[in-house]
Recover the amino acids of this structure.
């Protein structure tokens, strides 16, 4: 679907703001933040009777007490087992089962994603496989969910926050610290609110985002073609090793290096960079010996305009940060000028190349 530029502008203006990240914990590093399977695996370990976590009973009490009879809560505190990713006869996966010889609770975890699971299949499968147990069905989330009849809703963020604030919560061994990190990760109101806002933004604007990306790709391709035609160069867009939030177009001025773009090699080139702060950078790469040629090249480009680095043994230059361009036309003109300067340099120093 195609949108007008005004519609795309409106969507972009509503992108939620990202907060500055706090100090990372083990769940930021090892479980990719708010992904559901690692969350479920850790929760299953905490709840299981075989857990080495000494605060298990307190955890179970807070998790269940507002939603289940006291007899059920005490029963699970006394003894229970857990199973994750239980496969139904239809091939669907149930996040977590908590059970003992009297009761079973099915947990569907919606910490991050929208609730659209085959809940009837889950119920039918558990009902047929565990006819002797009294069964309960629970949706866990950090946002309000409209759950079907016979299902309970648990706000995991509020539960975890209560556990953290309980005065009896202590830090005596490695499992206490491990569980505290877990609780902090999923009770962080700022972080969870941000994730929810981003999810809602993506859901509401997905087709606009795809259309904007398509327009951006087409524009970058067209710009590269225009500079190619004006300078008789070849080009390659982006680079596997380039910065994540930037777009780079390398322009290759010499005919004997025209295959570089196709063969993913890097030779003499002038690179136009779209940076993540909205500015445009220009960086020439001269594949000549740094010690012998750097001073001459730096003077040609302007020592007051370009910074010089030795990258490997070649000359890498980039325009000073305070001189970077705000408009594409200005940056494009600079790229064309630098291609001309590079050709003039080689015409003087290595005539056989031009």
């Amino acid at each position: 679907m195609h949108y007008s530029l005004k519609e795309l502008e409106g969507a972009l203006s509503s992108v939620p703001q990202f907060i500055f990240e706090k100090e990372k914990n083990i769940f930021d590093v090892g479980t990719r933040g708010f992904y559901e399977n690692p969350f479920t695996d850790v929760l299953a370990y905490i709840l299981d009777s075989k857990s080495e976590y000494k605060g298990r009973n307190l955890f179970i009490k807070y998790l269940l007490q507002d939603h289940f009879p006291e007899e059920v809560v005490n029963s699970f505190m006394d003894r229970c087992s857990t199973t994750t990713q239980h496969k139904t006869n239809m091939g669907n996966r149930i996040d977590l089962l908590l059970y003992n010889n009297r009761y079973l609770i099915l947990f569907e975890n919606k910490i991050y994603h929208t609730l659209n699971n085959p809940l009837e299949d889950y119920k039918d499968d558990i009902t047929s496989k565990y006819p002797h147990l009294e069964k309960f069905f629970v949706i866990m989330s950090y946002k309000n969910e409209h759950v079907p009849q016979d299902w309970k809703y648990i706000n995991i963020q509020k539960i975890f926050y209560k556990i953290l604030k309980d005065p009896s919560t202590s830090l005596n061994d490695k499992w206490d610290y491990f569980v505290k990190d877990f609780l902090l990760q999923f009770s962080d109101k700022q972080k969870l609110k941000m994730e929810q806002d981003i999810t809602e933004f993506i859901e509401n604007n997905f087709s606009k985002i795809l259309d904007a990306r398509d327009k951006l790709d087409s524009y970058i391709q067209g710009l590269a073609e225009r500079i190619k035609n004006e300078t008789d160069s070849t080009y390659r867009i982006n680079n596997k090793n380039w910065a994540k939030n930037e777009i780079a177009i390398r322009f290759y001025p010499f005919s004997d290096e025209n295959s570089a773009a196709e063969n993913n090699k890097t030779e003499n080139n002038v690179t136009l960079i779209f940076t993540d702060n909205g500015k445009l950078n220009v960086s020439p790469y001269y594949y000549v010996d740094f010690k012998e040629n750097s001073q001459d090249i730096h003077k040609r480009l302007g020592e007051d305009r370009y910074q010089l680095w030795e990258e490997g043994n070649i000359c890498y230059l980039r325009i000073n940060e305070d001189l970077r361009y705000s408009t594409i036309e200005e940056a494009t003109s600079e790229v064309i000028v630098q291609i001309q300067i590079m050709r003039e340099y080689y015409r003087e120093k290595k005539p056989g190349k031009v």
Observations:
- Confidence is low (pLDDT under 50) at residues 18-23, 29-35, 258-264.
- The first helix runs from residue 5 to 13.
